[in-house]
Amino acid sequence: MKKIARDIYTNRTWLLMVLPGTIWLLIFAYLPMFGQVLAFKKFRIDPDGFFASVINSEWVGFDNFKYLFSTDDAWIITRNTLVYNTIFIVLGLVFAVATAILLSEMLSKKLSKFYQTSILFPHFISWVIGSYFVFTFLSADYGLLNYILEWFNIDPVAWYSEPKYWPFIIVFMSLWKGVGYGSIVYLASIVGIDRTYYEAAMIDGASKWNQIKNITIPMLKPLMIILTIMNIGKIFNSDFGLFYQVPRDSGALYSVTNVIDTFVYRGLMNLGDIGMSTAAGLYQSVVGFVLVIITNYIVRKIDEESALF
Amino acid sequence: MKTMGKKYRDPQRLHPVVNIIVTVLLGILAIACIFPFIYVVIISLTSEQSIVKNGFQLIPEAWSSDAYQYLWSMRGQLFRSYGVSIFVTVVGTAISVLMITFYAYAISRPQFQYRRFFTMLAFFTMLFSGGLVPMYIVVTQFLELKDTVWALILPLTMNAFYIIIMRTFFMKSVSESILESARIDGASEWRIFFQIIFPLSLPGIATIALFSTLGYWNDWFQALLYINDPNLVPLQSLLMKIEANLEFMRENMDVANMQQSLFSTIPQESAKMAMVVIATLPIAVSYPFFQKYFISGLTIGGVKE
């Protein structure tokens, strides 16, 4: 007992430094984790405050999950989340690496810098603003796309109520926002490649294409693998703004734009169904947790240095 | 090189024709990334009649600054939201940077006996999340922050990822020997932190501050969850419900009647786009300056030591 007190005293400065952060983590990270237990309860607000509400709410076992998985929604949101994220991961990787290589090979370095500045710009824009950017193209009455269609004598399209176009729009917008960031990350890695490799290849008469194929891409491979696996670990989470703001929360598009995150949000804010939306959130957290553990295990097998833990 | 004749081409460099193709392709991509912003600026300067007649044109039939004058006449709410956004960003970033650097510095020091425990405490939150609904209940029922400015600030203050990045940064950039000599001179750990560590770690701290600033400025999700009071609506979320808000702002205008005579038609569409421009402007203007810090920030800390 005395030893503990002394240890705390000798570490007092450090403990004081972590104190604010620890309080934050307990309230904003660990308390919600404890709150996940509401997935098994029927939430009722208790006048005695938060803990009383959580503890005194009636236990209903797996009823919320049974309800959730008995609807088509569970299947649709899982499918949408997984399929979109898979496409984002594959296309994001291809586009980011290709863009990075081309940027590094461009002869005009000044222009290359300017291009880098441009393609990174969407990364700093919120999806609220992004959704207006999309609206200028897709507005049924005034949008540029319908204007162009009219030019070719094609009937205008009510974009915000036609689900069939949205998988392409969502993927396009995801790439629009993400490719810049991805390519800058890979570009930083390309710049770090030892120039002597290329000089040696040049002396051997290797063409540019062969240099890219046999030096640049193999050198980027570890980073590609790590980032991809980390993305697979997050495959159950989606960018809320992309699926909520960009389609302007249009009900006609839910079949192709509803993902787990938007489903949980609407369950909470529109329906007020705390039990079911907590259940959906817990489903996401648990599967996400398992995926991170598995992918990290795989990373460690491939390259121990790059593993997260 | 010249002695080798005109035909010689450095194999390190792209063939000129290939270079032109690459330059054009990347040029299209680069334009696609900034064009929408320019397009929005153009629309905001288009006269409403022209929009109704011709849609959003790349080169409008008639230019007009009506949209901006219209917004100016309703500047009350606009300034209010700007103020909320600036307050949240500045205060949020300050708290965020302090809490993260304190926490990260402590767990980066080998003298701190419990560093493993506190590292795990932060790290585990990256693996398992509490989810939206419990978080919502904690903020609204436990902390009772609904419709307060703190609901916009506190939920975004810490981020385990930044803590881990900063911890790596401190481990790499702060050598134990400097600290030893300061300790021998009798400086307290707090003095060491503020007089040695803080200045020494400015590049890393600036990166976290930049991430945090952008995070707060661009956030609308917290407001969507927790804010109904129009006095506390930040800029991004004012934009979000712009149709309803333009209506709301007009009703709240004490000069509503004068307004009717000033504008023959309400510049509804162009005013929306003018709002988008106004909300994007701070980022678009400062972007070329902070961009290079952002890029160098990307490489400051691999997550692992």
CATH architecture of the largest domain in chain A: Orthogonal Bundle
What fraction strand of chain B?
A: under 5%
Q: What gyration radius of chain B follows from the Cα positions, in whole Å?
A: 26 Å
Strand order of the largest sheet of chain A: 1-2
Portion of residues in beta strands of chain A equals: under 5%
* Reported CATH architecture of the largest domain in chain B: Orthogonal Bundle
Largest sheet of chain A: 2 strands, antiparallel
Q: How many structural domains of chain B?
A: 2
Structural class of chain B: mainly alpha
The number of helical elements of chain A comes to 15
CATH superfamily of the largest domain in chain B: MetI-like
The portion of residues assigned to helices of chain A is: over 70%
Based on DSSP secondary structure assignment, what is the total number of beta strands of chain B? 0
Number of helices of chain B: 16
Classify the oligomer: heterodimer
Helix-strand category of chain A: mainly alpha
Pattern of helices and strands of chain B: HHHHHHHHHHHHHHHH
Notes on the structure:
The complex is a heterodimer of chains A (309) and B (305). By secondary structure, chain A is an all-alpha fold. Chain A has 2 domains: 2-59, no CATH class; 76-258, MetI-like fold (Orthogonal Bundle). Chain A contains 15 helices and 2 strands. Chain A has helices at 2-10, 12-35, 50-56, 63-70, 72-105, 109-120, 127-138, 144-151, 166-191, 195-203, 208-233, 240-244, 254-257, 260-271, 274-302, and strands at 41-42, 58-59. In chain A, strands 1-2 form a two-stranded antiparallel sheet. Chain A is globular, with a radius of gyration of 25 Å. With 305 residues, chain B is mainly alpha-helical. In chain B, helix 1 packs across helix 16, helix 3 packs across helix 16 and helix 4 packs antiparallel against helix 11 (202-217). The longest helix of chain B has 34 residues, at 75-108. Residues 1-7 and 301-305 of chain B have low confidence and may be disordered. The chains are: A mainly alpha (309), B mainly alpha (305). The interface between A and B is large, with 104 and 101 residues.
